Amino acid sequence: MLWIQVCKDDELVDGQFRIVENEDGDEVLVARAEGELLAVLNECSHDRRGFDGGCIEAGLLVCPRHGARFCLRTGKALTPPAYTDIATFPVKVEKGIIYVQA
Ligand code: FES
Questions:
Q1: 61: Cβ below 6 Å to ligand 1?
Q2: Domain 3-101 carries which CATH code?
Q3: pLDDT per residue as tens digits for the range 2-22
Q4: Which helix (H) or strand (E) holds 18?
């Protein structure tokens, strides 16, 4: 897996996320939640569509369609109607730029 450039570190404020695509066409959601940079597959395990339009609440990713909550650190599906966990990815900051390995 390659390191993909996301954005400048100071462009991603707490409680927000960016979505990038890897070379296989998979979308990865990179978030800053409670001060921590975290990344998961941008695909809700309930309907396999992305989290665009969703939000982060109390450090958890909330699906915009039926409200399932996912742990951004582990990818664990925490509330129905999603029951399957989603993949997570490493994130780093180098010289003020955020990268995700996906
Ligand atoms: S599509 Fe995400 S909870 Fe239903």
A1: no
A2: 2.102.10.10
A3: 999 999 999 999 999 999 999
A4: strand 17-21
